[in-house]
Design a protein that fits this description.
5-stranded antiparallel sheet; Jelly Rolls; alpha+beta; about 425 residues; 18 strands; 2 domains
Length: about 425
């Protein structure tokens, strides 16, 4: 009996405290709602912009995309810091906004144009390692102004490389007094830097290792204040809406300007893109029993080229599990020197197949990087069963077993690179 009485007394004591506890919980819930509730309105507005917003599958995919951007917003808003920089994954197969290239590893940091930064590490053997300094609050705060202007493009191969490809370079507004080493100018309008490591042979090339330090600040960072955290958390919903709307807008703009299944060559080198890089791009629209045969001449000289597919939200379509891209190393070139590929929902049984991953509408992109020319490919729509009739007579067949081995090798090589 004494034990039961004790339990009753303890329960009564807890009940007497419950109103205060409930109030504290409610207060925390109210605080958190200020960050979460705006996302409901974002979802409504994004779905309203979708031409197929009445499709439950597409709505679910949009919500999934929103969670992708919530995750990316943590890096961009709460982790990234121009005062105490670190290089974090800007785009990847996870953070797949703005059609990230499967050949690339993207690293990012915001910049203070008054800062003095040291970049150091090891070159590796990746085909291209480029640094772009640019201006765009979209990358640092999710502000809806687009990609912004490229202020400078720097190649790692212009630096003095030491043993094992070691490099060391200062990035600042003015060369430090008495400093004799490598130096890059930091533009007064700079907001961020993005590093692209572009690989051809995913399995054998060795990625660069890069560190960044700000020399005019203490190396350690203080504890973020409540006000700082609150300010950044309140920007998450805007980050999500602006990044997703950005991709939707670019897809719609290309569709309205150029229609479907027709390439146009664009230059993004002044808006955050790699200098000397041109993009053949096309909106595609295919039924399940149709295919697009892509054909192009190849430049006589070219540092790098590839083609890849993206969906109608400007997201790369699952490169870790399907063949979503083909570069100049991976491509099978026809005997006449042209690159021919097939985009379709079903395997056409020929080399260079782009699996559309179930997206009947989307985009196909190419990249001509530091090439002697920028050819404009053609796209021919045919029935999937008639693909071989439209290919050169010497085009080899690819069996289901060969395709399986190809995909497994592609997936393995993709996973061997650092992607996050």
């Amino acid at each position: 009996m004494k034990r039961i009485s004790l339990l009753v007394a303890m329960a009564a004591s807890l009940l007497s405290l419950s109103p205060a506890f409930a109030d504290e919980t409610a207060s925390a819930g109210t605080e958190f709602s200020a960050y979460v509730d705006p996302l409901k309105g974002v979802a409504d507005r994004l779905v309203a912009q979708m031409p197929d917003g009445d499709d439950p599958q597409r709505r679910a995919e949009m919500y999934r995309f929103m969670f992708t951007e919530i995750s990316q917003a943590y890096y961009g808003l709460l982790y990234a810091d121009p005062e105490h920089p670190d290089l974090w994954p800007l785009f990847s197969q996870v953070f797949d906004a703005a059609f990230p290239n499967p050949d690339d590893i993207y690293q990012f940091t915001p910049l203070d144009p008054k800062g003095v930064y040291r970049l150091s590490g090891y070159r590796g053997t990746t085909r291209i390692v480029d640094f772009q300094v640019a201006a765009a609050k979209m990358f640092t705060q999710g502000a809806p102004i687009g990609l912004g202007a490229t202020l400078a493009s720097y190649s790692i191969d212009k630096l003095k490389l030491g043993k094992n490809g070691a490099f060391d370079v200062i990035l600042s507004a003015e060369r430090p007094a008495g400093y004799k080493g490598d130096w890059w100018k930091l533009d007064a309008g700079a907001d961020y830097m993005v590093i692209r490591q572009i690989s051809y042979d995913w399995e054998k090339e060795i990625d660069a290792r890069i560190a960044i330090d700000r020399l005019d600040r203490s190396v350690s960072r203080g504890r973020p204040s409540k006000e700082q955290i609150d300010q950044q958390l309140r920007k998450v919903s805007g980050w999500v809406e602006n990044w997703i709307t950005f991709g939707m807008r670019l897809y719609k703009g290309t569709l309205q300007q150029h229609g479907t299944n027709k390439f146009v060559v664009r230059d993004y080198s002044t808006s955050g893109g790699v200098g000397g890089q041109f993009y053949p791009e096309m909106v595609y629209d295919l039924k399940d029993d149709e295919a697009l045969i892509v054909e192009t001449e190849l430049p006589k000289q070219c540092a790098y080229w590839n083609f890849q597919i993206a969906d109608d939200w400007w997201r790369t379509t699952d490169p870790a599990r399907r063949i979503a891209s083909i570069n100049g190393f991976q491509a099978k070139i026809s005997k006449d020197g042209k690159f021919r590929a097939v985009l379709s929902a079903k395997d056409p049984g020929v080399p260079n197949w782009f699996d559309n991953s179930g997206f009947a509408k989307g985009m196909l992109y190419g990249r001509w990087t530091r090439c002697s020319s920028a050819p404009e490919p053609t796209a021919t729509k045919v029935k999937i069963d008639e693909v071989k009739q439209h290919m050169p007579a010497d085009t080899p067949s690819v069996s289901p077993e060969q395709r399986d081995r190809e995909l497994r090798a592609y997936k393995r090589a993709f996973q061997l690179r650092r992607r996050t």
